[in-house]
Amino acid sequence: MKSCNNTAWKFLSEADVFSGSELLAGGVERSHAHALSGVQNAYIVDLRSPGHGVTYEEVLTTIKEHVRGKSAGDWVFFVNFAPSLLGFVPGVGLRRLGFEQLDRISTTVNIVVESASGHGAYANSTAFASVGVTAATPAPPNSSYEVDADGELTGVMLEPPSFGPFLKHKPKDMVGRAPYGSSPTVLV
């Protein structure tokens, strides 16, 4: 097995990755697992991606269904959003979430979506306002809040320190809650 750094990985083709009997694997030097978050996330709405029959449209529908009927100020959390598995759209790129998509669902209920990788999260503008994060808020070390060309927040957070303020709103009574696949699957 060969390895490369993450910067080089972005520019490789499938032919570069699979060469004969060798596999080129990105990030081997810094490989890691997210076992604890898997246990914790068993109590939140799971947005399983393709391979489990979920499309981008079904992801948005799932979020809408679980937000419907919630009161203003409630928090709803989702996990396992995997844009890389939802396909590349010519002229668009990877399907993603952020203010544009999540504010269409609700501007009164706080929506937070964690990526399947554990390295990204997305929220609506309501959630950002609720935790007091603005475009002027410095991100914690080793993380970032994405801004657009005009310097405005997009609703995208990169690396766990940036979504820590949001995750503080996960319910504290997760013990005894039913896991994914049985009722209830949503924490509010």
Note down, in words, how this protein is organized.
With 188 residues, this protein is of the alpha/beta class. It has 7 helices and 11 strands. The chain has a 6-stranded mixed β-sheet, with helices on both faces. A hairpin with a 2-residue loop joins strand 2 (18-19) and strand 3 (22-26). The longest helix has 12 residues, at 56-67.
Set out the fold topology.
Elements: E1 2-4, H1 6-9, H2 14-17, E2 18-19, E3 22-26, H3 35-40, E4 45-46, H4 56-67, E5 75-81, E6 88-89, E7 93-94, H5 99-105, E8 110-115, E9 120-123, H6 125-131, E10 144-147, E11 153-158, H7 160-167
Parallel strand pairs: 1-3, 4-5, 5-8
Antiparallel strand pairs: 2-3, 6-7, 8-9, 9-11, 10-11
* Total DSSP E strands: 11
Query: Order of strands across the biggest sheet?
Result: 4-5-8-9-11-10
In terms of DSSP E residues, the strand content is 15-25%
Question: Termini, distance in Å?
Answer: 44 Å
The H/E string reads EHHEEHEHEEEHEEHEEH
Q: Biggest β-sheet, characterized?
A: 6 strands, mixed
Broad structural category: alpha/beta
Mean pLDDT: 74
Residue ranges: pLDDT <50 for 5 or more in a row? 1-19, 23-43, 49-53, 173-188
Rg result:
18 Å
Helical proportion? 25-40%
